[in-house]
Design goal:
Helix content: 10-25%
Radius of gyration: 18 Å
Oligomer: single chain
Distance between the termini: 23 Å
Structural class: alpha+beta
Number of strands: 12
Strand content: 35-45%
Order of helices and strands: HHEEEEEEEEEEEE
Number of helices: 2
Amino acid sequence: MKFSSMKKYFLFILALMSIHIAQAQTSEKAMKLYEQSKNKINSLKDYSFTFTFQSDENFFDGLIKVKGQKFNIKLDGLSMIYDGKKTYNINPQDKEVNIYNQSEDMGIMTPSTLLSYFKTSEYNFQWDIEQQLGDGRKIQFIKLTPKSGTKTKNSGLIGIDTKTNMVYKIIEIDAFQSRNTLTINSFKSNQNMPDTEFQFKKSDYPGYYVYEVD
């Protein structure tokens, strides 16, 4: 997979109110759960999770580690490190490293935007189905549809664990009904990750072509 495709997927990765009173109450409840989940993620000192990404054309697994605004992503054999200043795209197959300054679009791919992908000002929130997993967890889905008058075309579903308020699944549906689905398989938090997890050392990649884009 090319890094341009990886960027597109992580723009989705690296997230996510009616006339009748009952509908308004449902929207308020959905918004509250969404905000609780987003606030919980943003309050963590560090976290990591394994995930599965599925689209109409692709299916692969990955791992993300996050500390503040820094992150380390492994996806389909590729790696991406953001140290707070620069982003390092590492391609073992081509033995190549591309380096981007923070000002590049890559900088907005921090996984802390996992939920912020769906801006509350652009979407209507609706309480949707509840799913019970085999391990007993209950996942409440929130349906997001674009508000009229916005440029947003994509809709979404966000599944949140009702016990922990952590995200379990995010589904993006575009105007052509194509789906991108991110499922979080395991989640760990506050592990006191060392800063070395988010540092690029050229000496670790002998024989690689290292190119600084700007």
